[in-house]
Structures are given as structure tokens and as C-alpha cells.
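[job 4471] stage=fold_predict status=RUNNING
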Amino acid sequence: MTDVLLSCALVWAVFLALHLALNGRWWPWLAVSLLPPLAFAAVPLALLAAAAVTGGWAEAALAAGCLLAGWTQNGVNLRALGRRSEAAEGLRLVSWNTQHWSQGGDPERFYAFLRSLAADVYVLQEYLNGFEGGEVWDIDDEERIRAAFPGHHLAVDNNSVTLSRFPPAGPPVPVGACSLRVDLRVGDGILSTYNVHIPVQLTVMNPLRPAFLRDMRRRAAAREREYAALVDDLRGNPHPVLVTGDFNTSAAIGDIRRMPRSLRDAIGACRSVLPASWNARARLRLWRIDWAFTGGGARVGSYRFRPAEGLSDHLVQELTVTTPHV
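[job 4471] inference complete, writing C-alpha cells
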């Protein structure tokens, strides 16, 4: 039994070493990094428990080392244990991947849900229609959006929608091919909002077909371009920033390391120990692929994921945000 446990611990240690070395650096590892982040805590904890039963000190030491080395990959939010109450001050913002807008559903219900969120700023992704297989097409629902949200300013580009009670400080700025920057006049200053949608890693198909690897390599290159464009724009932006949306990137995917270290992950304001945003339609949600970051003096007071009432496979991100100017 001890030999089997030691072998399992060694296998996991080798896998973890490869993951830390190749993750975010070698594009084929994108498929491996789709592993639920919680596995990076669950597997070494299970090995530790087994070692405690068998008295295997070497196995326990190896499992503990793996737990510590892979801690940043597991998505566990220990900061939630120290939070007592949510701050309500600041502007209310929601960020949500709508899963192809209201396609295939009741538009009235879709817009009623959006209005029920009662946000000052809406940052919405997938303003398009499409179907399984990758083909998508643009839509034009601007007249209906304006009618549903009087008093809001509308910006549409790169299949993204940003709605705001605050006036824009200039025209919307496309970032890459999939994201949108909108500068808002908030108080006496400007808050730059980034509506982010990073392409998904792969298409569901037979992984043994050559087309699978070609498609994944193409998507990895597209992700690289989108992250590079986003980071480049952020580094040249002198304003407070809020960067949020569907990154299609979990804590176990190395691409998230591309975000500038000057940004603060909003998860520190969340009260969930195991935050997850996908799949909203499943009972067990294992991936957080929707993120929010602030920088330049902008701060998040409260942050949570709320149900999408069956309208999307993504949960809704709800935040309160303050800036140095309000």
C-alpha cells in the first residue's frame, strides 16, 4: 500500500512540475490545463490523508510540497474566510457573458433580467448569434437596447456591449479583435472599463484528428494576440481601470499570468471560498473563467457571482467599484 501511495505521489509531483513549467508557455498544454483547478488542492490533500493513515512520512512530505507548489493553481479563495460584510458604496457594475445574447430564448425575459440587475454600468459579452460548430454572425439590437435602458449611454463594438449611466469621455476603443475599452466620466475623473472576451481554447471534436491540433494551435495564437493587445493598452492607460469579462481562463491556465501585476484581482472582495462562474447550468461548477481586475486607484468593495436564471452558461459578476474621484 505504501509503495502504491508513493508511486501516486511521485506521478502527481511529476505532472505538477510539467504543468508549472509548460502552462502558459507551450500551446498544446492548453488542453491539459482545462483540468478543474480544484484538483490541484484535492489530489495532494487526498494523498496527505492516505499518508496519515499509512504512516508514510515521505509520501506526506511529497504531497504537502505539491499542495504548496500548486496552490496558486487551485482557485481556492481563503481571503473569503476573513470577510465579514460587503461594502455597498460605489458604482454598481455587472459583467456577463450572455451566451449569444437572447438567441434561442425569449427576448422579453432576457431584457427583463438585465433590467432587474439594476446596474450603473453593464459590461456584456457575446453580442452576436451563432451555433455549435463555431460559425457566428453579427446582430443589430441597438434600438431595443436603447428603449430598454433609457438614460444609459451605449457603446457597441467587437461583439461587446457596454451600457452606462455615466457619459463616455470619448469614442469606444476596440482592443484586439474581441474586447472593448470605454472611458467613462465618473465624478471629476475618468474610469476606463475593459469589456474582455478571450477566445476559447478548443473546439469539441475528436482529439485524435489532425484538425483538432490545428484548431487548438490557431486558437492559442488568437488568445496570445488578444492578451497582448489588452496588456499593451493597459500599460499605456493613465486612468483608473476596471478590467472584466470572460477570459476563458481558469486559475489553472497560465495565460492569466499575462495580466499586469499592477492590477488587483477582485476575488479578494468575494465571500465565496470556492468561486466558480462556469457552467452556470450545471449543479457542480468547477471553473472560474470570468474575472474582474482593478488598477490605477479603482477598488472593488463587493464582488459576487449570481445565477443567470438559465439564460447563459455563465454566472453574472456583480461588483461595487470606487475610484479616486468619487
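[job 4471] summary: DSSP finds seven helices and 14 strands in the chain.
[job 4471] exit 0
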